[in-house]
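Protocol step 4 of 6: structure prediction from sequence.
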Amino acid sequence: MVVSTRERSTVRLRPWWIVAALVLLTAALLAGLLAGAAGLPVRGVVLQLADWLPFVSVDSGLAPIEQGLLLELRLPRVLLAAVVGGLLAVAGAGYQGVFRNPLADPYLLGAAAGAGLTVTLAIVLVGGDAASAAVPPMAFVGAIGGVLLAYALGRSARRGGDGTATLVLAGVAVTSFLTAIQTFVQQLRVEELQRIYAWILGDVAGGWEDLRLIAPYALVAAGAMLLHGRMLDVLSVGDDEAVSLGVRASRVRLAVLLAACLATAAAVAVSGLIAFVGIVIPHVVRRLAGGSYRIVLPLSLIGGAAFLVLADLVARTVLAPAELPIGVVTAFVGAPFFVFVLRVTRRVET
């Protein structure tokens, strides 16, 4: 069912939706801080977090080693998972709004392939500890480069046709090309495959430095996405109506794509390639709260954060003391969900 612009204009983000999402996120963050190979008491963790607040001084009762575990390992890890999950989910929602397709995801335009190639080159050519330091900036540059290459190819190939369809095809072509180069480079240095695949499967075990690295990009990208919710609602009912309302569809699409690209690149830079978050979360939000992007974008941001924190919790505990790659956990959830979305979408189209 197509929702008119007037009907969408009456949609408001009800406070209880935000409250429910924030409660879920808070519970996920607390669970992520408590669970692990070394258990921590709930009361001690809550009091310790309160003690770190300005103008608050309480005795948590945690031993110094427990405080170090909480501050240096658990807290940055769950916060990084929350930021990465939120960025991937809101980027996926933005791509789905631009392309009007619930199967669009943050890696649609070559971000994953670009990042994969540059990270592979960093690991193979730099090597050692220097490669570990080079991976985040190289992944960021590669993700941005892959999307820009797809966008340039899409614009050059468009001749009055459907610009979004051409852009998607350009993304597929760029992804195939860059993946082929990455595979070739991997075959030249087979001994580095384990490090490359460890990055591809995703990881949010970074520390405070990773959070500081992506914080400015995350704020800019998420803020820009949230500001375009109403514009995406207008675009969802057609370019003609958007023009009649004074909205320049091409400019809105470009702004959303740039913000989504920045969000994806920031996430990939510190976490590797974590799949399905950008498909699963926006679709769940639409099913629960409605299709207006003024609702979908903020709830996807919060829901994606909670989802990835919980996925990381599973990754850390299901095979404890060993860890399961977080990308494997999201794939276990996301792959069946992707099939479900595909079946529902085809049923609606027919």
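Step 5 (inspection) to follow. The domain at 5-349 is CATH 1.10.3470.10 (ABC transporter involved in vitamin B12 uptake, BtuC).
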